[in-house]
Write a structure and sequence with these properties.
The protein has 4 helices and 11 strands; from the N terminus they run H-H-H-H-E-E-E-E-E-E-E-E-E-E-E. It is an alpha+beta fold. Helix 1 runs antiparallel to helix 2, helix 1 runs antiparallel to helix 3 and helix 3 packs antiparallel against helix 4.
Length: 321
């Protein structure tokens, strides 16, 4: 009896150690990530101060005041990411550079964090501590999901063609998920983003994970390529929640303006060919999927794609209610 009690105590003690090890790894990662985020904000604020000084020297009051507003936004807790669509080119280019450097550093921390969690998971499995392994695996899944949308997997992507004509600054692409209205049972979990210049594939980002929650409007954003022309955005749904995948809205921000709004959309298909789930819904300007006619839903159990043609605007984009 005493032996059994001792074994039980040892089991609980070992489980606590495993949980503590996972918590320590998480705390270490979050602390390091926080330092990187603070450093990126400090760097951005410093550059903005220099740009304000330059504007002052040139007696450019309009630029000075605009940069001052941007600096105050960040000092008040705003994200550097929002500066990538700033109307002042020097501010936007600085923000993009800092975001890429920051996210690549965070990605490096994440890869180390994932590796350590994988080692801890393996140890738990080999020690036949399945309950511990489950807890570690949950943390590991979250870390991998974050890694899939951080650093080179998201803001940088992969340039396919070097022959396209450079056009403008990097554009921000935002994907709004759907939860299928009041049903709360379907949506996208993972997708690929492909950018085309007419029929030529010029850039892609694979395995982008989109957060999904029932009865919540969630989104994921990525910075498109800098200096690469594109006029079509295709999203391929590779994993989905429940019956099928779908999206509520695709936004493409250029200098703060959503240039995808009202654009024509094509798709591989949509749910039962019912107009209320039409792909045209994803450029209507409505990011919520609470109401039908405000999101696109694919066919049951099928990998689908949807494509926004930025060169074609359709009339009467407001939906009939």
């Amino acid at each position: 009896m005493k032996k059994m009690c001792l074994l039980a105590v040892l089991f609980v003690f070992a489980m606590v150690l495993c949980v503590q090890a996972g918590e320590n790894l998480t705390e270490k990662y979050e602390t390091s990530k926080g330092k990187v985020l603070r450093a990126s904000c400090d760097a951005y604020v410093g550059v903005l101060s220099n740009l304000m000084a330059q504007a002052k020297q040139k007696a450019d009051l309009q630029s000075y005041l605009a940069i001052q507003i941007e600096q105050k936004r960040v000092l008040d807790g705003g994200l550097v990411d929002e500066g990538t669509t700033n109307s002042i080119e020097s501010v936007a280019s600085t923000a993009k550079k800092i975001v890429i450097e920051r996210d690549n550093r965070i990605a490096a921390l994440l890869r180390q964090y994932v590796s350590q969690l994988e080692a801890l998971l393996k140890h738990s499995m080999l020690s036949d501590k399945i309950d511990e392994a489950k807890m570690v695996n949950e943390v590991l899944d979250k870390a991998k999901a974050e890694l899939a949308t951080t650093g080179k997997n998201q803001p940088v992507g992969q340039q396919i063609s070097k022959g396209t004509t450079a056009s403008s600054q990097s554009k921000k692409i935002v994907l709004w998920n759907t939860h299928n209205g009041s049903a709360n049972n379907s949506g996208t979990l993972e997708c690929n983003i492909l950018l085309y210049n007419n029929s030529e594939l010029v850039w892609e980002a694979k395995n982008i994970q989109i957060p999904w929650e029932p009865d919540q409007d969630t989104k994921v954003s990525t910075n498109g390529p800098s200096g690469i022309s594109f006029n079509k955005v295709r999203v391929e749904v590779t994993k989905w929640q429940g019956l099928t995948g779908g999206l509520s809205e695709i936004q493409v921000f250029d200098c703060g303006r959503n240039i995808a709004k009202g654009c024509f959309v094509s798709a591989s298909g949509y749910w039962s060919n019912q107009d209320e789930f039409s792909p045209q819904n994803i450029t209507d300007g409505q990011t919520s999927s609470e109401d039908k006619r405000s999101f696109w839903l694919g066919r049951d159990g099928t990998r689908e794609w949807v494509e926004v043609d930025l060169t074609k605007n359709r009339k009467n984009t407001e939906k009939k209610r």
